[in-house]
């Protein structure tokens, strides 16, 4: 059973604070191991990759080579059920259309004085995409990371994916092919991150690395950050559902379980203005846990981190939601559209009773890589902007410099930077 | 003397690689000290701030209180020369106009199927701005960080600035006032970063921390990252000037020195297609070093990290520049406008002979907080986007869910996520 809170209880604030500050993640200290692996790849390149892949993934990558060949990819794709391919294609197309709208436009203009200013956007030339092996090998995640990169114009999108015992995951390869990934290597772990950052004889280095991974991958990304860019380090997933009593309790319960089945550290929170409805949802959860294949995981998540909060009104409910800053926010209420306007902090908002979060995980079109652990207070989900960068442009004509230059000279001298002052003054014969 | 390279030399590629991989920064290991300071502030709040400020800044902040009062700010501002105030105001106004154009627009739309999708932007509610004391206390940096935050709509912009021996820096306070900073505290170092991240009785916590600082501040920002957002950690500054022989060698030399005077670890690079002109610039640098107040710093930077590269044509020159990915790029050439189109990696581009980089440091309007150490290959300068975040919006009507939902069910089952599948299927009576 999840904890049950009522915003009108005397001790509510303290208990809500406890909920907010709950630590759901055990951080493993793998920094030293990872530092050693990165050093090996940095100094021994491909040789280190062969050895580490033998050690961790139990096969000799020398046999087929580090790179997964086009034939292997084509064969994998051919093995996939046409229905599944069609579903992946629908997802790919919808993600592509949505992310095309996120492409920023250059803005070059002259201001009132005639100074030319501008922002010019260019794609990052080469990006690496880490895809986990094993349980978390989700083709949907490949699409969510790779499609925006290609939409942004990344020329060289390089995927790494561990293939334990040398076994390929056809769905992951199919998603990569559909998304337009340019190169795929059968390596994983910190060694794959190191190869992307430093390059080897076989693998050219990239400038940014994105994608989820285990503690070793996360630590490796942190360690190479600076040399290359990285995306956010994702924590366990969470959903907050705001629901009135007009909902079917079973619908809301299964939405809470969809989050909970990801991970025992996932968190599902219900906020409702009706105590009886909230109780009905709790009961529905217990019923559903009897038939869900991942009931162990979902049940543990619900028991340890789940919460059901009743509120007197939606103003209170939304204020609490904004303090949680959930990764996913479902608004299953009559006035859902209006309520969107009051959302201040949320990674993604799912509006109305017919938009379960799971549709957004796959085929909605928006991205499912979203800020976790309350970071929606200060960051955004993955999107096209993560694969481009902006150069500012400034051009002064001589008369512009005469107009604004003296102020620069004044400020430079105040800051004690005489060469700065002179670089303007000399052009003005000052 | 800077090193001199010619792109036609046989060993050029190796020597250019050496230039690219030069380490200019000594990373101090202050993590343990910083962890202890953060712990003190986390557990003892204001008391810890008083003690640490007494220890590091040598005054008792209990006397006037941690917060710098409006009277203190007004008095400081009143002491400033009207010319300097006017220069700061011009800078503020120009930075504001430029950054207003960077405000992203919401994009809410219905796609061909009738699914409502969208991106909705909101400002980060509370942001902390670190301003260094001592040498690097630049009022221009206060404007460059604070103005975009206010343009973005940040409601609570909190500045921290150490005041060694209790002495205020009037210029920094004036810049803060002009930029609309809401609260200013007389604290610095890792303790100030900790106070912003965790909050104390006096200081409410913020959600993101920006601004430059020394090794302790940088380490503290890294340690609180995750709990709050942070901006990039800036390294030593650099400029790359592409100049033809039509330039006055003195103009180009002083631009190189303007970068070099920042820091002995700064880097100034000249690329020219004319060897005699390049030599004339080198000679001009030597002359100028005789009269510059910061000749010690600028001379050391030029000697240790400066470079003069001659090329046969601009195509080669631009290819080298894109590999360097300079923080600042000056195009002092006849066809500067055309050349902008070929720039792939640069934080800011200064176009034409009358746009010295220094004008952009103060009054151009674009931001001077820019990606250093070749990170322009994957990141952008500071801007309005750094103070907002995006929530994605998805709304399916029942018939939309009927159309795209089955593909979500298919993919969820492929990924072994049955509750995901059911949360869609149950709404479709599947």
TrEMBL record, chains A, B:
This enzyme's EC code(s): 1.1.1.23
Gene Ontology biological-process annotations: L-histidine biosynthetic process
Catalytic residues of the enzyme: 327 (proton acceptor), 328 (proton acceptor)
Biochemical pathway: Amino-acid biosynthesis; L-histidine biosynthesis; L-histidine from 5-phospho-alpha-D-ribose 1-diphosphate: step 9/9
Keywords in alphabetical order: Amino-acid biosynthesis, Histidine biosynthesis, Metal-binding, NAD, Oxidoreductase, Zinc
Binding-site list for NAD(+): 130, 191, 214
SUPFAM superfamilies in the cross-refs: ALDH-like (SSF53720)
Pfam families: Histidinol_dh
Signal sequence, start to end: none
One GO cellular component term noted in the UniProt record for this chain: cytosol
Stored InterPro entries: Ald_DH/histidinol_DH, Histidinol_DH_CS, Histidinol_DH_monofunct, Hstdl_DH
Residue positions binding Zn(2+): 259, 262, 361, 420
GO MF: histidinol dehydrogenase activity; NAD binding; zinc ion binding
Annotated catalysed reactions: L-histidinol + 2 NAD(+) + H2O = L-histidine + 2 NADH + 3 H(+)
Oxidoreductase in keyword set: yes
Top EC category: oxidoreductase
Cofactor(s) this protein requires: Zn(2+)
Binding-site residues for substrate, renumbered to this chain: 237, 259, 262, 328, 361, 415, 420
Cofactor comment text: Binds 1 zinc ion per subunit.
Annotated family: Belongs to the histidinol dehydrogenase family.
Purpose of the protein: Catalyzes the sequential NAD-dependent oxidations of L-histidinol to L-histidinaldehyde and then to L-histidine.
Protein's recorded name: Histidinol dehydrogenase
This protein's encoding gene: hisD
